[in-house]
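Figure 2 data, in text form.
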Amino acid sequence: MKLRNFLVVIFAVAGSYTSFAQSNLLNAKTPDEIGKKTAAQMNADNDKPLPYGYVHDRDILMGKATWEIIDLDERVNFPLYYPIDSVNIGSDRRSLFDVLIKGIKTGRITEVYTDDYFNTKKTLKDMASSFKYVDTTQAGRDEINTYYDDYMKGRKILDPQYIDTRDLTGIDIAGYKIKGYWYFDKRQGELKYRMLGICPVSPEARDIGAENPDVIELFWVYFPSIRDVLHENKAFNDKNSAMPLTFDHLLNARRFSAVIYKEENVYGDRKIEDYMKENSQMQLLESERVKEKIRNFEQDMWNY
């Protein structure tokens, strides 16, 4: 009997967790009922991201700002990249890029900047050329040259088949740059990390489909200002789809793989590639050296 009761409790708990993945999935009689939550579920979901604790400047014994790059080709970073299908997969599952863009378009995300020092704000209009590219194909140019007078006098209008339009979407995102601050809290006696900014990087819309295109920084977002938006959107949990992770939790818990490409330094915060030129292996080793330098500060605190 004890074993039976234990199994009943286990299945009951698992069933309650499943409701957070796709509400009403097992009770729905038609597909339209999937995702509809009861009043009790909506009340339980009315939560907020865990607030950051106040840190006084005098409590920071050591601090170091670092910049890292998250490569979305790495398997561990896939929850930030997928799903790239934003039509059939469902409205409750979106990639991080879609969440950021939707937040900017709806006005919920306002702290958008052109650089990683958050000096100059950037609007959606400023980013239009990076997100959409419209040009005339070579066949269209030949068509215009052939009937030049007709086009100039408005007697003919160029057919849409001669217009090349490219839109930047989540599938084109190559990675994310993040800026964060490592600090040693002397009150807590431990090394901590606080993310300050995040920036999607990708080719420009005009370079989509090109071989080895250059990637650019699309925009920088001040991370603490978007935690509510990230907390409302879930990333896929490959180990247990009944317990998805919020993007806020995923990023704050550093559940991703990243490589340091710049640190705060006396040389104007120069990048590692600026002084370790044309040697990828040495750049990775230098990145690890910067990481170990920060870690060793905490370890040295407990050595006498």
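Caption note: The chain has eleven helices and eleven strands.
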